[in-house]
Amino acid sequence: MIIVREVAQLRQAIAERRQLGTNRAKAEYGSAAIQQHTVGFVPTMGYLHEGHASLMQKARELSDTVVLSIFVNPIQFGPNEDLDSYPRDEARDLEVARREGVDIVFLPTVAEMYPQPTRTKIHVSALTERLCGASRPGHFDGVTTVVAKLFNMVNPDLAFFGMKDAQQVAVLQQMVTDLNMNVTIVPCPIVREADGLALSSRNVYLSAEQREQALVLSQSLRKVREVSEDAVQNSFTIGQIHQMVESTITSSPLADIDYIEILTFPGLEPILAEQRLSDVQEDIIVALAVKFGNTRLIDNIRLQKAEVLSHV
Ligand code: PAF
User: Fold this and answer.
1) Active-site positions?
2) Where, by residue number, does beta-alanine bind (predicted)?
3) What is the pLDDT of residues 21-44, one digit of tens each?
4) Which terminus of the chain is more exposed, N or C, with fewer CB under 10 A?
5) Which of 42, 47, 48, 73 has most ligand 1 atoms within 8 Å of CB, for mutation?
6) How far apart, in whole angstroms, are the C-alpha atoms of residue 282 and residue 158?
């Protein structure tokens, strides 16, 4: 596994891997049948857990070369957010990367990523105005800007992102389409603990009591799944589902709700509260952000239209 900290080294290491693949293909198949060498990219902020591992596994499965970046990106944190205390453990992260068969790890410093004050920002409109975009102003501009920079450095064919940050996936997909970036975004399923808690680097901040009560998030989403699969209950309206989720979450005295929203996905358009679940003609996302003490957790469930039983 190659570990690099500078952009020039990263480009060099990737160029060598691509060249190697091309040479091998030439030798095996002749110059007329050069196969593409696929570079898969997993951008992260480190403190890697099984959710990240699942992204690396998918990347390993689909790519010839797997590149992992670990960079806690300051420009996606607000002034009162947890940039300074964001958990970091480089040695353990490198072990996880090695175990998952990563080829190249990029570990830049802030100065390497932002050698001068950034005057260029990427802003995706509309999709960033709701959910986490509303509670964390400027957050998604920081995400799209750093991901665009990383895409320009790595030049990946495929890039892997977890659906726990479903809005991030929708926003990045929009950016890639709008700017004709030559990369395919591969969304990967949410990974949960055995008791349902969605994996997050921020889970380490939770006290034992907060962690116990945080299970209301996945419990409320499980109820949504059950409703969608039940031929009688899926005639519930969006308003009723919202209420059901809210009452499950407020059963935890420590839960402080930031948002509960039911929107179309990936368009993130609001759905009328009176509309029946089974009548919505698009995929739906039920997205939550809830604080336990200072720790803000997000979770969501996506209901694909085909999965919602038709209303009878
Ligand atoms: O999802 C994350 O960890 C970050 O938002 C990302 C995509 C690595 C950009 O900093």
Assistant:
1) 52
2) 76
3) 766 666 776 765 556 899 999 999
4) C
5) 73
6) 26
